[in-house]
Structure formats: structure tokens, C-alpha cells
Amino acid sequence: MIRVLLVHDTELMRSALTALLDREEDIEVVAESWESAPDRARAQRPHVCVVDVDCPGASRLPSRPVDRDCALLVLATTARPGSLRRAAEAKALGFVDKDAQPLQLPRAIRLMATGRRYVDGTLALDLLRAATAPLTPRELGVLSLAAKGASAPEIARSLRLSIGTVRNYMCAITRKTGARNRIDAIRISRDAGWV
Amino acid sequence: MIRVLLVHDTELMRSALTALLDREEDIEVVAESWESAPDRARAQRPHVCVVDVDCPGASRLPSRPVDRDCALLVLATTARPGSLRRAAEAKALGFVDKDAQPLQLPRAIRLMATGRRYVDGTLALDLLRAATAPLTPRELGVLSLAAKGASAPEIARSLRLSIGTVRNYMCAITRKTGARNRIDAIRISRDAGWV
């Protein structure tokens, strides 16, 4: 029996994905919120942990909701390389496209339970984009504060930079993302899952 | 038999929600994308149409994916009154909280199939907020262009306003949303589902 820990933000989606996987006789699912997943993982010792990388709670992903022995499989959509980057940094070994045939999910779970990897072909190009992130970690730090509404002086104080340096970072971010202005840069980066 | 048309952006979530509802003997589900839903609705004549109001495709909601005879039930999360507003404008009669017990969904479907309404108590306050939208339709128009990265002159041209008027709208929007600046106003409005 393959033990699966499924993590999703909302109760309804947890139940729905559980109903889907309950059809497979060799898979046993427990679904949890991001808050309760770590405790459950310690008790259940799952073989595979399945998380939806687009839900807001997935921003916690780099710190892993589960222990090291469990293979991490992420559910993802195309055109969001930033989300895939977080998943890769959390050492995900499986990447299932939410628009693939639903049978891919149990298939990928079985592969991963035997120590193999799985990447949907439709996500391969995004994984390449994720590997060559357009922004440096420092630029991402500036951008994520700006996206929360912080002004240049506030960002400067928060990151211990000069205001001019923050402005230079914002210009570099706008140029690298091909944006028309700061607001556009934030929109592009959010749509791609970078912030 | 209650015929349900389920509309969601991704194949996996359509299949998962179908698996959940397939457990109910009196409910028959067909799941479709936003593109194919109108055709399917004409062929299937569903009693209830279930849509996830937080998925990107739901921005088409005011034009209704289905015909007038079908009761619209939306799956929603708290703290996004803008999404509920779109649902209300599309004449939704059912509002199910995605964090409620999953059995609420078939219960709500049954109520609506007999012509009744259903609102989860947890969404009631958000519906009140949705009814008293903080922004006017004109302000929402300005804001949604700004959120896409348009500059004040571009917004002015697009909406046939003077640049000064656009700036006045942006100031009103920032004040009404309690934001620190324009970027913050866009973030707050997006999180609430207004744009």
C-alpha cells in the first residue's frame, strides 16, 4: 500500500482529490491543511506527499511540509515557472500538470513510491525557465516587498540598502521582466509565480 | 436524478470534484472547461451549474456559462468579496464555502434543484461587503487597467478621460481601499477579488 499525504488549502479540494485517489486500490490517502501536515507526516510516514503548488499556502514550500524520506510531488499549471522554482528548491521529484489526464496522478505517485521521478512533458519548458530565473534573489526580495505595497524608502530600510540602490533594483527588475513600469513588473512576476 | 454541470479551469480539479459528487446516488455530474461549458449546457440542460469563483476563468462569470433555467452555485473562499460580487451579478443562488464540510456541496445542490437558495454562514459577511462595493464601476475600470500595468496617460486615452481625472480616481481608490500607495491599492483589490 502506498501512503500518500495530500496537502491543499481548502477542505473541499482536499476531499475532492482524496475521492479521486480513493479509486486506486493500492493508494491510501490522508489529506491535511498546511498547518497540520507536518504533524501528520510524522505520524503517518507517507511515501509520497502531494501538494498543489498554486495555492497560497504553497509559499511555505521551500521549508517542506514533510520529512526528508518522503518524495514530494507537486500539482502545477503551465506558465508559472516561479511556482515550479519553489517546488524544485523544496526538492520535488514529481511534477504533474493539472491539465493532464487525471490518471497521470496515480501513475506518477506509483513511480515516485518506487524511487523514480516524474515530470509531465507540458511542464518541461517551464522547469527550464524556472532553472534560469530572470531575477536574482536580491531582486526578488525587493520585488516581493514592493508587491506588498512598500515604498522605496521602506524597502531600503527593511533590506538595509540605500534608496538609490532600491530604485536601481526596481529599474533592473522592470527591464528584465520586459515590463512597462513597476506595476507591470509586479503583475508579470506574480502571474509567473515569482512573488 | 439531479443533473449538474461542473465548470473548472483544470482537468484535475474537474475530475476530483466529479469523483466527490459521484458518491451521491441522486446526482449526475458532467464536468467541462469554461470554453466548452455553454455547448454542454445546451445539450445537457443541467438543473444546477457549479463553478469555482476563484479560478481565472471565472472572470467570465457575469455573462453566465449556462442558460437561464439552470441554478448557479458558486464555490468560494472567505475574504474575496469581489469574486462574490461577480457571482451575485451572474445571479448565483448558491454560495458554498470551500472550507466548509464537503457534504455541504451535495446538500446545497439538492436545495437548489428544488428551487431554493443556499448561502454558507461563513460567506454571509463577505456577501454584505460585496453588496456595498467600496469602488464605483468607473473606479474599478481605472483600477483594472492600472493593475495590468497601464500608465495614467494610457488609462486616460483608453477611457477618454483627462490625465488629471485618472490621477484623481487613483487617489480616491487608494484612499477608499485604505492603501499606502497605488501598488498597495492594486494588491488589496486583487486579494479581495475586485480586479
From TrEMBL, chains A, B:
GO MF, any single term: DNA binding
Coiled-coil region: none
| InterPro entries referenced in this protein's UniProt entry, alphabetically | CheY-like_superfamily, Sig_transdc_resp-reg_C-effctor, Sig_transdc_resp-reg_receiver, Tscrpt_reg_LuxR_C, WalR-like, WH-like_DNA-bd_sf
Short name of any one Pfam family annotated for the protein: GerE
Give residues where 4-aspartylphosphate occurs. Answer: D52
Taxonomy, superkingdom: Bacteria
Keyword Ribosomal protein applies:
no
Show which residues constitute the signal peptide. none
Q: Tell me the Gene3D superfamilies matching this sequence.
A: 3.40.50.2300, Winged helix-like DNA-binding domain superfamily/Winged helix DNA-binding domain (1.10.10.10)
Could you tell me the keywords of this UniProt record? DNA-binding, Phosphoprotein
Q: Does the keyword Signal apply?
A: no
Q: Supply the SMART domains for this chain.
A: HTH_LUXR (SM00421), REC (SM00448)
BP terms from Gene Ontology:
phosphorelay signal transduction system; regulation of DNA-templated transcription
Start and end of every HTH luxR-type domain? 128-193
Could you tell me which residue ranges the Response regulatory domain spans?
Answer: 3-113
Protein's UniProt name: DNA-binding response regulator
Source organism per entry reads: Embleya hyalina
Which gene carries the instructions for this protein? Answer: desR_1
